[in-house]
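Dear U.,

Please find below the material for section 3 of the report. The protein was modelled together with magnesium ion; I have listed the sequence and SMILES used, followed by the predicted complex structure.
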Amino acid sequence: MLKISGLNAFYDNVHALKSVDLEIKQGEIVSLIGSNGAGKTTTLSCICGLVAARSGSITYRDKDITNSPTHKIISGGIGLAPEGREVFPGLTVEENLRLGAYARRDPGGLADAYSRVYDLFPRLKERTAQAAGTLSGGEQQMLAIGRALMSGPELLLLDEPSLGLAPNLVLMIFELIREINKQGVTILLVEQNANLALYTSNRTYVLETGHVVISGESRDLLKDEGIKKAYLGQ
Amino acid sequence: MADFVQQILNGFALGLAYALVAVGYSLVFGILRLINFSHGSVYAFGAHAAFFMVGLHFGPVPAIIAAMLITGVLGVVIDRTALAPLRKKKSVSIAALVTTLGISSIIQNMLVVIFGSQRKPFPDFFNFGTLELGGVRLGSRQLVMVTVSLALLLLLLMVVNKTKVGLAMRATAQNQKAAALMGINVNNIITLTFLMGGASAAIAGGMVGGYYQIVYPSMGFMIGLKAFAASVLGGIGSLPGALVGGLLVGVIESLAALFFGSNYRDATAFIILIAVLIFRPAGLFGKKEVVKV
Ligand SMILES: Nc1ncnc2c1ncn2[C@@H]1O[C@H](COP(=O)(O)OP(=O)(O)O)[C@@H](O)[C@H]1O
Ligand SMILES: [Mg+2]
């Protein structure tokens, strides 16, 4: 569904991604783990056209989307719940969700999209008229994910959905991520919490300073001695 | 007393024209955090476009609509040719600010080349007579200016607050990256902003041109600064703020002219500007964050 090959990306002189290869098949949950600064967010940013790829290619459903404008990539069926949520603080929950569906062209789809998101996150439904900036961290995360779902994406990119949330909320969010996947959405999950990522996903890629150092079935990586030591704290 | 009411009335009409110019500053500032100092010249361009179109004798309404379109396009051209390349290079914000000053002088000189620098008589086409009530004169020019300006400002508020594209504008103003992630073509939204700013400046130019029956290339300088003061007073970036700020500046300067003599008229806006920057830098309707100029 998504194929990244030989991707290189820079911030001025910082070589953030070094020949990254990554593939996601339809229906999978793939996780991308690695320590702070490894290049996980940059990978997602390149997929969405927010950071330029210096070389390499990104194809989505056999279409080359490398360095396409962000709005085209989004209307092409990819959604991102970005790191730090980035909800529109001065707009209401409902307006945030409405914006998520901005690229939708089917008038009837909007009502379905709302009800799907409100079913997944009943908490948001209680707060439709509230400014997003006044929500708790967990609610903002729900809003960020819900907003990304409003366009009806086939591929959902999640950047550290557990960041800064209380443990019980983290478990709830991950439960919902599995539920969203069961509804037919393919997911690329970026996480610092390697344990959770490995348990949730089918396959995993490990990034270190811009390189993919290990990749494979998540259940195999859970048993890998190197991974246990470096990422699982065992 | 009649003088007092008269000045308030005059100030109200003029203030609405300031408001129309001020929304141009606010629209662009809201989205780009940029003070577009070419806006005064865009206003002068709009007045000249209206002057030119009126000369073609299609009647005042088509002339002003045509001037709106042309001036809106000028706004778009300014953004696409001069400002968008700077954004793309992620250059420092002062570069864009200085660029708008340069554009201002290009436009003004272009007007001198095309129309000459002298003052040109603008036809008095809003004059259908004057109503007199207890010594207070309400001219049809004022009435037209008030009605048209108010209608346009309300329309603008409606577009920004009630339509899908307005929602996209507000989203882009808050977070461009997140807006792009919603599938919004941010560049188109910015273009639309300049279009709306240019069109409203043209209306103001046509109205004020008709009000004083005169146009000239540097006519945008003073009103540009006053409208800037008005938008800062209202809270730059806020459309209701631009409306209230424009009205306040218009009324206060008319009263100042009444009480202290007309020499003080033009200074009033700047005294207000300085006072706002000292006592309430975010303006009346502005957010708490301090505006960095
Ligand atoms: N906006 C930026 N400007 C400069 N360098 C950046 C920027 N964003 C990220 N980097 C650098 O790129 C590298 C990868 O960062 P990032 O993709 O955010 O990592 P991760 O998401 O895995 O924590 C890091 O070295 C980081 O310092
Ligand atoms: Mg990150």
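For the text of the report, you could mention the following: Strands of chain B lie at 120-121, 130-133, 136-139, 214-215.

Regards,
Y.
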